[in-house]
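Revision sheet: structure tokens.
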Amino acid sequence: MEVEDILYKHPAVLFASVVAKPDAKWGEVPCAFIELKEGAKTTEAEIIAYCRNHISSFKTPKVVVFGTIPKTSTGKIQKFLLRNQVESAKAISAEESPNPSIASKANQCILASAAL
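Predicted:
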């Protein structure tokens, strides 16, 4: 929300949405989807610099995608379509434990301690 609020303050931005994008180093990074106002022009570098001037660098989008943002008939942004576009689910599956038995044992310990 904080990143989107900053993006909406940019003079060229009509609509903005931010989703997680898979990243080899960090697991996931912010990816901004931006729909520009009619006649407005800006670049990915300008948007990133604008964000860096207003929020922490780790919150700054690493990728900016320009184009029409999908919305419902009532005007709500369809984030699930944007997540599908950047394959956000891959970031989630990459974070899963490589050994499911460890997670299972941890859950058993929690349940056992709760029973005491």
